[in-house]
């Protein structure tokens, strides 16, 4: 096996350990990533903006500064990672996947990027995104990102480029963000792990309304331990984010090193809201029941999510209008029609609609808080459908039931967004067609440590094959239950 192949197969934790011991350098990892990107990204189109030479210069400076005797800084110790093309990296393009910003250059790194750099990350590329928002990664600037498990399928979005890059071994960690599922859905579709943290856990930049609690930044990784490492690198308060919280007393890696099983798990196939593909339900239920092997009780139970779909639609539209509404008068012809629709929906909201959504969300919060007085984890599918063709902008029906808007198929993630609870997408098996399926695990607000602990134990129990993979023209069919039911 070549050195490149050996290095890209390292977990992030293994790579950081080698960096700290001086057995490899950040430049070694950047070179390995560059070789892998050249080999596979032409097929998946995950990392269209690259700045490898600048990264090498930063890495060499880190090596010269710390040498082999001193510890490199931060949690990540010079690990190369990918930013998302919604985040500013100083001196690089931030296109948002939009022709309107196709040549926009960031003058400085945003808070989330700067926090990771201070924690020892070296950014080497930016990952592809949908235009402004969405859960299928395609745009008029860079084209579509393809699912590495089947190149004719969607990688999800909006962190689709990040998820595909991780699954194919182009980076060891990647930035994600999540409004209605933009971190969890691509994690599910690409067979990796993604965490939507509690609002305020990861400090955000100035490009979003400071008191918004819908859009959060979070980590994407190939496994739960790597995800905990990245969250430790991100969870640092910042005075420009009024919601940011102090660091926890213990690192999140402790939850991986000394995990504790949940006592009681509630499972729901659809949160009482709508149709879900039967194969997805079967895989997720089977995976959730594996908590019983850890001594937990698993029951059919979930909070009451009444009115949550309409509530999220209203609050999301208001946020999109607040952040992008000023673009319509001048740039309407250059904006994806789905985004135009969402902006106009937000601009057209009445006071009664906004007040009703606020009241509905408040009532939901209290019902969910009451649920977590009795349960430690809520489990449900991440997405109502398996990966769909990348050429299809979005699913238009589920099980013969027509959907009203371009985000209705995302309901299992976006109603969880309303709760403010941390939610994690964990790979739990494959469809008969060979496409990944993720189980969504949710914990009480600010309960990231217990959520990571439960996810780590279930990950070990499921024992799915490790990443990365080489891109596959088509999915490899197999029995859907063969891997998800494999004890090791």
What features would you describe in this structure?
By secondary structure, the protein is α+β, with helices and mostly antiparallel strands. It has one domain (about 5-485): Amidase signature (AS) domain (Amidase signature (AS) enzymes, Alpha-Beta Complex), CATH 3.90.1300. It is built from 17 helices and 17 strands. The protein has helices at about 5-10, 10-20, 25-45, 50-65, 110-120, 160-165, 185-190, 225-235, 255, 280-290, 310-325, 330, 335-345, 350-370, 410-420, 450-460, 480-485, and strands at about 50, 80-85, 120-125, 140, 145, 145, 150-155, 175-180, 195, 215-220, 265, 295-300, 375-380, 395-400, 400, 425-430, 435-440. The strands form five sheets. Strands 8-10-9-16-17-13-11-12 form an eight-stranded mixed beta sheet, with helices on both faces. A three-stranded mixed beta sheet has the order 1-3-2. Helix 3 (about 25-45) runs antiparallel to helix 4 (about 50-65), helix 6 (about 160-165) packs parallel to helix 7 and helix 11 (about 310-325) crosses helix 15 (about 410-420). The radius of gyration is 21 Å and the shape is globular. The two termini are about 25 Å apart.
